[in-house]
Amino acid sequence: MLRKPLLTFVALILLLFPGQTRAEMYMTLDEPFSGFSSNDVGDIVYMDLSGGARIIWVGTARGISKTSDGGLTWSFYDLRNGLNQNIISALAASGTDLWAATSYDKLVQGELYPYGRGFNTTEDFGDTWDSFIPFQVSKYAGMVCYDIAIDGTTVWASAWYGGLIRSQDGGENWENVFVDSAAQVDFEDEIFRDLRNYFFAVVVDTACPIEKTLRNSINDISYDGKLLWVATQNGLQASPTLGNSWFEFDTSGGLNSNGVYCLGGDTSGVWVGLYEQEETHPLPLIPSLTGADLNSTTDNGNTWSVSSPDLGQASSFEKFAFDIAVADTAVWAACGKGGLIRSFDRGQTWENVFVDTAAERRFEEEVLEECDIFTSMAADTFAVDSTVIWAGTRDGMFKFVFTVDDSADTVFHYLSSGPMQTNEILSIGVQTYHDQKVVWASANEVTSPPPHTPPGVTYKTTDGGETWNSHLEGIVVRDFDFLDSAVWAASHDGLKRSTDGGGNWDTFEIVDSVSGELIIPSQFTSVCVVPYVTDTFVFVGSVDGLARSRDDGITWEVTKFAQSFKKAVWAGTAAGILKFIFNYRELPDTALHYWYPSDNITGNWIVALAIQEHNGKKVVWAATQLAYTGRYGASFSTDDGDSWDTTLVDDEVWNFAFDDTVVWAATSAGLKRSEDWGENWEIFNYMEDQDPISQATIWSTEYTSVTIIDGEVWAGNIDGLVKGTYDGQAWGWDVIRTAVPETYAYPSPFSPILQERVRIHYRPQQDGPVTVKIYDFAMNLVATLADGKDVIGGEWYDEFWDGKNEKGDVVANGVYFFKVQAAGDQTEWGKLVILK
What we know:
mainly beta; about 5% helix; 5-stranded antiparallel β-sheet; about 50% strand; Immunoglobulin-like; disordered N terminus; Methylamine Dehydrogenase, Chain H
C-alpha cells in the first residue's frame, strides 16, 4: 500500500452512475525506462517463473519499477509507456499476470483529494498493458483501490468509498459484495455513511481449519424418539428440539474419538460407531479408517459406556462400525474387515456371525474375500415369529433368518455379480407400511481391477429377496429413510423422493429461496424423516452441513456446526474486519464481523490483512488503527477469527510478511521482526547500504511495505527501497533509490489529525545558522520551524511541523511550501500537502 487515505468520513454528494467498466489498451512502443522510478515506495510483489527466473515489481508514486536480477538493474513504466496514471496504490501478481491500481491527486476548490484511475494489467511483463476503470474506483474523490487479491480467475479489490469489488472475467465487469442489505442501500442510495463500505485491505483464504470442516461433514442422522442425533467427522451433535438447539459430544464429553461414522439404537439407548479422526474430507464411499470401538448411552448423553470387542473387530485398520442396528435384545454392527458382530448384553461381550464355516475359517486365518467385508446392515423384525438381518458386503448382500434360536436358520446371498464385477452395498433400508415390506439397497457396481469410477444403482425387493428391481441407475445413494409409502434417498445427485415405489423420483436441492443458489452442496450422505405432532421434519446431511425442512422439502433451513468454508475473503474496513464465507457457490454464505472493542482487536480501521501458514498452523494478521475509537497496533488470530490477540500496541502498522514462523511488520516506528509470533520484536531503522562508496541511507522510519522473497527481506517507504540478507551473524542491507534531493518532506500528504507531525528533512552544505519556514499557496508565511539554528555542514537534520500556524490553529487543506536557508547562500524549496 503506497500511502494513507485520510479518514474524514465525509458524505459525497456527487451523483453515482452504475456504468460499465471503461476498458482501454495501451501498447508499449518504447522500451521501459531505465532506472528506479521513485523513492516513494509502496507495494512489492514478485513472480516466480520457470527455470528459476524471478521478476520483482515495485509500485511507487511515479510508476512501476521492475527488476529481473535481484535489484542490480531496474526499468520502469509510467504514463509515458503504458500506465494510465503514475501513482500506484496497490499491486498484485499471480502467475504471469500483474495487476496495478492507480490514482492521482486533484485540486478541488483549493483542496487536494485522491482520485482512483482503476487498474492497469499486463500478461507479458510490461510489453502491453490493459486499463480497466470501474466506477467504484474512479468516479469520486476518495474512491481509490488500496489492495488487490487474486483468487484463480477472480480479482478482488478493496476500494475506499467504492466498497469491496470483484471481477470474474479479467476486469471487463465488476460487482460489489456487500456485508448485508443495509450496506447495499447505503452505497446504492449515495448515503456513504456505513463504515463497512470503506474498504482498505483484502486477502483470500482457502485454508479452513480442518476441525471446522470436519464438524460440518455429516456421516449419519438418527432420531430415537427423544433426541435427534447427528454424526459428524468431528464430534456428535444432539438436539432435543429437532434442530432448534444443540448439544455437542466429543472426547471431552465422554466419547472415545471425535470421528463418528454411524448411529444406531432405539428408545432404550443410542449406539455410536467411532473411528480415529483423520484429515479426510469428504470420506470416500468405502473408507479405509481405523476403528475406535463403540460408545453407547442410555441417558441422552449424560454418561457414555465404551464397548470394545475382544478380537478388535471395531478398533483396527479397516475394522470399525460401518453400520449399527438393534433387533430385539441384540445389538448388531457391520464392522468392515472385522465382520458382522452382535452382542446380547449391551456390548459387554461380542461374537461374530458368519455366513458359513468357510467364512469363519477365512476370518480366523485373515485371508478375507470381498464377501467377508461387511459395510452396511438393517434389522427386520416385521414378522412376530422371526428376525431377519440384512447385511451388505463388498460383494453383495446376505440375508440371515432367525426363527427359533440364536443361530441363523437360513442364509441367502443376493446382488453378487460374479468374479469380475462386484456390488459394494453402501446402505440398506427396510420399509414397512400397510402390511407391506420393501427392502431397499444401494450399491456400486465395481469392475476390477482399480482404479475405477463405480456407477451407482439402487435395488428393491418386495418379496423378501426372491426378485429385485433396479432404480436410480448411475446415481450413488448413501442412505434411505421412509414415511409410510414414501422413500427418501440421500444421493450424490441431490435428495430423492418417490411415492410410487421408485417409478418416479422428485429431486430436492438445498437452495436459497430468494436467489435460487445452492446453500450446501447436493452431495448428500444421510437422511432422516421424523413425524412430529402435526409436522413432518426432513433432515438431510451433506459434506458441508445439515438441512431441515418442515414443509415437505419446499423450503430449507441450514445448520452449520462450525463456520467452515471452501474459501473465505477477509476484508479490512473502517468498521473492523469482515470475513465473507464461501462454500460451494460463488456467493458468500455468511459474513462475520470482528470489531473493536467486542472482539479484542486494537482498532477498527484495518489497513492491512495477511495470512501466515506454517506446518499446518494458520495465523490471520490485521494491522489496526483507530477510527473514532480504538488504538494503533496489530491483532492476530490463531483460531480463524474465533478469538484475537494483540501486539505492537500503539504502533502504526502498515503491512506484514512471513518467513516460515518469522513475522515481519512494516510500521511507522521502523521495520520490525519477531521470531516468537509477536511476543518480542527486533527493530531495524536507518539502514545503510553495504557498499561503502554509495553510503546511501534510509532516513525515514515509517515503512509501508515489506515482502519476503526467497529468504531476502524487501521493504519500502517514502525514502526508498531496501533489500536485507542475513549471513548467519548480522543483517546486511542494499539501499535502492533514485537520485535523492537534499531536502524533502514526509509523510505527504500529511494529516494533522491522524499523524502527529510532518518531517522536513535537509542537509546543510556548511556550518552555520539555518532557517526553515512554511508558506501557503499564496506564499504567505504560515509557520517558522527554525530561526538561526546552528548546524554542522554535511549532517542530516529534521524539523517537525504539527500542521498549525503561528496562532496555533490547524491550517486548511491544500498545498504548502517549505523553504530551507543555510550558510553559503544555500536555499532549498520543497512542497507538501495537507489533507485532513
